[in-house]
Amino acid sequence: MTRGMSGFLTRLIALIRKETRQMLRDRSNLMVGLLLPAALILLFGYGLSFDVRDAPVAVVLEDRSETARDTVAGLSGSPYLAPVAVPDMGRAVALLRAHTVDAIVRVPVDFTARKAGGEGRIQVLLNGYDATSAMTIGTYIDGAIQLSVLHDQDRMGPGMDSGSTLGLVQRVWFNAASISTWYLVPGLLVLVITLIGAFLTSLLIAREWERGTLESLFVTPVRPLELVMAKLAPYMVIGAIDVALCLASARFLFHVPIRGSLGVIIVSSLLYLSVSLMLGLLISGVTRNQFAASQMAMLASFMPATMLSGFVYDIRNMPTAIRAISLMLPATHFMDLIKGLFLAGTVWPLVFKSCGILLLYLVGLGFLTTRTLRKRLD
Amino acid sequence: MTDTGFTVVAQGLRKVFVAPDGKPFDAIDDLSFRIRAGTLTALTGPDGAGKTTLMRMMAGLLRPDAGTLQVLGEDVSLRPQAVQNRISYMPQRFGLYEDLSVQENLDLYADLHGVPMEQRRERFSRMLEMTDMARFTARPAGKLSGGMKQKLGLACTLVRSPDLLLLDEPSVGVDPLSRRDLWTILEQLIEGENLSVIVSTAYMDEAARCTDVFVVNRGRLLAEGSPEDLSHRAKGLTYEAAPPPGMPARVLQARLIDAPDRIVDAVPRGGRVWFIRQPDCDEAALRELLPDTPFEPRTEELEDAFMALLREHDGDSGKTAEHAPAATVPQSKGDGHPVIVVRDLVRRFGDFTAVASTSFSVAQGEIFGLLGPNGAGKTTTFRMLCGLLPATSGHLEVAGLNLRKARAEARGRIGYVSQKFALYGNLTVRENLEFFAGAYGLPRKRAHARIEAVLKQFDLEPGAVSGILPVGYKQRLAMAAGLLHEPDILFLDEPTSGIDPMARRAFWRTITALAQDGVTIIVTTHFMEEAEYCDRIAIQDDGRMLALGTPQQVREQAGGDRAMDMNTAFIANVEQSRAALARKGEAA
Amino acid sequence: MEWLTVWLAQILSLCRKEFLAVIKDPANRTILFVPVLMQSVLFGYGATFDLTNVPYVVVDESRSATSTALLARIDGTGVFRRAATLETPAQIAAMIDAGKATVAITIPSDFDQRLTRGQASPVEVVLDGRNSSTAGAAAGQIGTIVADFNRSRGVHPAVTVERRAWYNPNLLTRWSLLPTLIASLSFMQTLLIAALSVAREREQGTFDQLMVTPLRPMQIMVGKLLPAMTIGLIQSTLVLLVIRFWFQIPMQGSLVLLYCCLIGFTTAAVGLGLSISALSLNMQQAMLYTFIVIMPMMLLSGMVTPVRNMPRVLQLATMVNPLRFGIDMARRIYLEGAGLSDIAFDFVPLAAITAVSLPLAAWLFRNRLS
Question: Which PROSITE patterns did the record assign (chain B) (predicted)?
């Protein structure tokens, strides 16, 4: 038994040494393993944002009265909007079509008159080209105008009754300013791990099949599990560096709070990293050719991880069938966990559930990958 | 070893593969045999005979569909790992990690086999010494020449002394010098460690060195026995004929090989022609075939028996492809003016000189052989001639032009068949040919006519997917594609590497016919006896030209006579030059 | 004249070969056409900011008729699903932490009294900011409900803002997103096909064979360009069909113009791929370089987040990103019915990318030595 164990260890160490050397000697590997994540981190942190700033808005004052001016004055006060005065509707529409402005605020000729009767109307035209931004801009315009109206009423003095209205007091937990970076950056950790897993390991076995190196390796005392473990090991190190990179930049570069336990974040990240690397290995072992493996890796990693994991789009908004598919992705479970760990703190039931699911994936994928290496050519 | 004294015992073995067209075929068909322990056993047969399949089954990599296979007393289909722990196996293409160094490759395999440290030191130094690689331990395996890679593969396979060693065509694509080294290593090991070895090979001179020889064809066992026993089967059938003065040996050889009803096989040797008659063809019938040529019996060799066996087993299917009728007298070969002129050609890669100051010229209609060990600069010379690689310096002229600088149309005059199969594997034979017809800009009508012509000439199935053709057929297809546009000059880079003797005969028959039609042919090969087909040969080593002349002149330069085989002549030439170089180095 | 026919015939035979080489393998056929269909359907349903199911919890300390009526309105939207009715605000944290609720609504005990007294009466809304988009959308929707509720109680604001959205009246994310997939889904795979095409010839040894034929590098480039483009256009067509007939999003613009744009876009993408390919020595390098190029291009394309939100430097960098213009053109033609004059500018960078990458690839093809 001890003999078997020491044989296992000698072989495993030899294989790990081999994989490490191969990894280090190919510069393109390190580029994908270290440079690409670094580039992604910067792009995510600085490049991607749902936060509207200085959205150009065309303001058409068909009613040129002071009341009308006062009402739209609030637009210039908003940090989110950049109003531009446009003489007529025709001009404004042309600007909207050319994407020079994102919205048109039109104050109709009869505005002052109607406002006096308490029925003032302002039209807002949005470009639905980008629904998300349009929605946000619409809300900002609305808010800015209502604010002006309130100020207006204040100036009129308390004589005007604001009425027994229901007001809303909003509080956003975890991300008080609703900064999208805060939820994009924890998601970035998921995306980076998914991508390097798919790209780095998806060619490893396929390449050995294509170059014929497996045939010689098979006829040695080596066991399939040893091959799988050895292929994982060096990339785990690269992945761990990437995890550290992501966490450090989240904390120090983007100042995203880490409210949960750092230890749990690290352990669960490494767990997901091994799932992701294993998935790449499985693709590699199943396809056995580099062309198909690279296409598969591309298809299986980036788009699902961006679109279906809850990274950008909330999976609760998805139809049941799609949500079921989304829940089959390991990325979804890790995404849920890591966002919670970053922004909410350590919620133990969630940690156990997500890590349990990831562990199941690891074992399942590991089993399948080992089978693709079961020392047979037919 | 096993009680029975046999390393491998096969009983009713069968392996069925499904061809990509969906039809199943028997790769191994009811095979039963026993291989004795402590012997060097050869497994030989034509391409597609099932040699590799059999090797893989013995290594536990393929599961038999029927029958039993015992290796070292274990049922290999039930306990493959138990067998794999005790054997060593070198596949056809040994999986060296090209980005790892020689030492790292050796270490890896030693670790995997659990070779203890103290044993390892002694073993490594012996292996490195035998393979003459001690100088290169730090070099990445990918930077070694083909022969060195093969030797390193063998060294990795032999990091420990196995109970059984399986070698699958270890010498394919390896030059004669490395091949000789490889066999020296093997023989030393067998002697020193009482190894049991099974080697598959297409070289009959290698099979002749073995204790037992198994001949397989189409998954069946044709014959087994010692080389002497097998050779005996051709006894009384082998002859040697001298062509009339002025006639190249290959013309006579062509005439003989074109008469398959009387002649089993014919090859040029030392300016003469060796041939085998059909058993039912008496000497009178031979005389009828060779009215003006004297011939005499010669001693039979293993290759003679092999050819006779296969022709007998294959029956009609062994027919040679159709050719232009072999002319008895060589046609006019043009005015003999040179179509290829190379003067002081040099190519350097960094500070490494791949081709050093090489000069030669080739006349129209000539068959010109370029020989040399792996890494001698043959392929580099070739690539420069075809315009694929710029020369560092020197003068280069093909059909009056430098192809690298000439207009694209000039490339339409040459045909090129590369070292490894370089056609589109997932296209059918016809689709490949149609593509090349299009690429060479053949008008539709002519393209159609030429495709039909080459399909017939090379006996190709137009609908077959080219990537899964047997090696010999791939080579025919490559030739067909290279000849589609009827080039004036044909470049062939190791066209017969890894091809069995029968396919090589057919191949060379085509070449000689082309030369007769005035096509100039430049060819490289590792089969030295094939140099006998050439009008002139050049031997390169280390980028330098060592010998240039007719095969006879080259033999003489090596200090041999007509009886000296080309293999020996080649090795002698290279070694003499290397020795001279070493002396010069010491003097300086 | 005759050389032209020969020239074209040579290219044609190259195209045929390239096309056959990719399409003959059943695995390739599957991998090139099935995932595109699957993804467009999946993302059409999955990638949405449009709220359909927001779990919320409520702490109703008022328990008045008004508060019950308000909650009934919220429940009545079908979007908000009450996950629990809590007793005290202290319980909210656990529900939100565990992800069981995205929104918590607290109605204070003096809610009704304040209203009767004619005072403004606040309702407290707590939002889970882990997904700021969902939080924002949910807040917006609750705001609308409350405004409607006020109106129904006879309280009018002095000014109403009427919102209308052009091209996408209900501001559905699906409408904005799907047309971008016409360009982005085919982008990844065609770029990869192009990138692998020359590298594969190098790795399989067919490269030399090709170079000794009378074909010129430019012909070889065109011969590799057209099949990859065809595959890209077929993929785009598949996505287009899914959008038009499965999701039934009305197409406003001209189909002819859309295809002209797609051709321009795909040419630039393939040109880029061929440059990568001519630069790489083997398929692995080609693939990894492609990944390195594709990932930033996807992120900086405006597909997920608008280009306008990016810092200036990055906005400039997107000028060399064909996907940015492909997406912009596809979306504007499809949704806005943009005409040629509206999107003419987008052709400029695409043409520039093609004009640089193709000759570069042809030059590298001949001069990059293995």
Answer: ABC_TRANSPORTER_1, ABC_TRANSPORTER_2
Please report which helix (H) or strand (E) contains residue B276, including its range.
strand B272-277
Domain B6-223, what fold? Rossmann fold (3.40.50)
Confidence of residue B2 (pLDDT cuts 50, 70, 90): very low
Closest CA to B572 of B151, B173, B177: B177
Strands B295-297 and B238-241: antiparallel
Whether C173 sits inside 8 A of A313 (CB atoms) is yes
Q: Same fold for the domain at B231-318 and the one at B338-587?
A: no
> Model pTM?
0.84
Q: In what order do the strands lie in the sheet with B393-398?
A: B352-363, B338-349, B393-398
Taking the CA of residue B84 and the nearest CA in chain A, the distance in Å comes to 5
**Cβ contact (<8 Å) for C47 and A26?**
no
User: Looking at the partner chain, which of C13, C208, C211 has a beta carbon nearest the beta carbon of B438?
Assistant: C13
Name the residue among C136, C146, C300 with its Cβ closest to that of A168.
Answer: C146
pLDDT exceeds cutoff 70 at B353: yes
- The residues, any chain, with a CB within 8 Å of residue C272's CB and separated by 6 or more, are C191, C194, C293, C322, C353, C357
B338-587 maps to CATH 3.10.580.10: no
Tell me the mean pLDDT in the region C286-297. Answer: 88
**Interface contact B427-C17, CB threshold 8 A:** yes
| Out of B26-35, B62-71, B500-509, least confident range | B500-509
Note whether C335 contacts A129, CB cutoff 8 Å. Answer: yes
pLDDT at B174: 82
* Binary contact (B388, C206; C-beta < 8 A): no
Give the model's confidence band at B72: pLDDT under 50 very low, under 70 low, under 90 confident, else very high. very high
Closest-CA residue of chain B to A25: B99
- Residues of chain B positioned with their CB less than 8 A from the CB of C12: 438
Contact between B99 and A21 using a beta-carbon 8 Å cutoff: yes
Tell me which residue in C123, C130, C163 faces A166 most closely, judged by beta carbons: C123
The arithmetic mean of pLDDT across residues B332-336, rounded, is 54
Rounded Cα distance between A326 and C46, Å, is 8
Average pLDDT over residues B483-500: 87
Structure tokens at B216: 């397989």
Give the minimum alpha-carbon distance from C45 to chain A in angstroms, rounded to a whole number: 6
Those chains having 3 or more beta-carbon pairs within 8 angstroms of chain A are B, C
Residue in chain A closest to C36 (alpha carbons) equals A299
Give the fold, CATH level 3, of B231-318.
Alpha-Beta Plaits (3.30.70)
Smallest CA–CA distance, residue C220 to chain B, in Å, is 10
Nearest to B159 by CA among B194, B128, B120: B120
| Helices A290-307 and C283-299, packing angle to 10 deg | 20
Domain ranges of chain B: 6-223, 231-318, 338-587
Residues 6+ apart with CB under 8 A from B174: B146, B147, B150, B182, B374, B526
Looking at the predicted structure, is the pLDDT value of residue C65 above 70?
yes
Among A149-158, A266-275, B519-528, C104-113, the range scoring the smallest mean pLDDT is A149-158
What are chain A's domains? 18-48+178-372 (no CATH), 55-155 (3.40.1710.10)
Element (H, E) at B559: none
Out of B416, B427, B444, closest to residue C21 by CB: B427
**pLDDT value of residue B315:** 60
For chain C, domain boundaries: 14-47+172-367, 54-152
Indicate the CATH number for domain C54-152: 3.40.1710.10
Answer yes or no: do C208 and B440 touch at CB < 8 A: no
Question: Does the distance separating the beta carbons of B153 and A375 come in below 8 Å?
Answer: no
The predicted-structure confidence for C322-341, as pLDDT tens digits, reads as follows 999 999 999 999 998 888 88
Q: What percent of chain A has pLDDT over 70?
A: 92
Q: CA-CA distance, C205 to B418, in Å (whole number)?
A: 8
Q: How confident is the model at residue B336 (pLDDT cuts 50, 70, 90)?
A: low
